[in-house]
Amino acid sequence: MTSHIQASPYLKPAPSLDICDHQFVVVINSGSGTGTPEAIMERLAEHADTIKVKQKAILRSGDNIEKRISKIFTYASRKKMGVLAAGGDGTINLCVKYALKYDVPMAMLAQGTFNLFARHHGLSVDPATQVAQLADSRIKKVPICWINGLPFTTSAAFGIYPDVIDDREHYQKRAGFRSRTTAMLAGVLTFFRHEKRLRVAVETPEGIRKVKAILLMATQNRPQLQNFGCEKEMDQVDGRFALITVKPLDWKGKLRLLMKGSVKQLPQQEEFETSLHQSLTLHSSHSSLKCALDGEVIELATPVHMHAQPRALSLFVPNHIDGNP
User: Would you tell me how many other CB atoms lie within 10 Å of the CB of residue 11?
Assistant: First the structure.
């Protein structure tokens, strides 16, 4: 006798991971980068068979950008669609926040000055190449770090770095444009001018240690780690984050550190140290600490809690990335 096994009507097939099986709302920040919304849509149209755009939203100067992005992700969640974000690091980071909140798969076209999150996941800095990579991508669950309940994709930095961000914005407004060169020059000026020292206690599962530093930065971003010459941490950071500590220096020490960084030479232990963590807490005598979170300067209440979540965000990444079948 032949038996027939019928599939349960309650079992659903696993959702496809390939980009060609998803529909998208495209979010374009018209104020990011040099590409126009029209140019971005034209490039996407060249791959219409794989990147299926059903809706688009253009963010313009004067918009309440966070409110609009929240509504877009609410709509995408209801319609079971993905969101493709085209903009700078700030726009993409906001989209990551709501992609996590509403569990919506996300793709990105980086249009900003640094594009650190996109570069971390293997995307080219060339706009046309990015679109071609996106057309050959699939969903991967990627790690995200959290600080006091806020997600961050690039870094959370304390000490001198928030001042670097503030000064960078000042110089770029005076120059009338944004560029990596302007940002780096502003950073160097602030680095030598400011004498701010950070005093915190760093609590990890191994214990508590007191730290004095001019810069304390948590990051899992490979381009950011590469900027500090942290080659070992780049290979070992997955699912964790690196804590980079730059110790108090006089102007000669700062110059020495800057010169080593320019040739990607790892600084000495008396100047600089790194460690890898799954979680940690910063304790301070102050009620809050000034933090540069993904390039935005905010105040965080103390104690400050940080942790890495290994499989957090559903992100479309190029198929050539190692570990992605």
Answer: 6
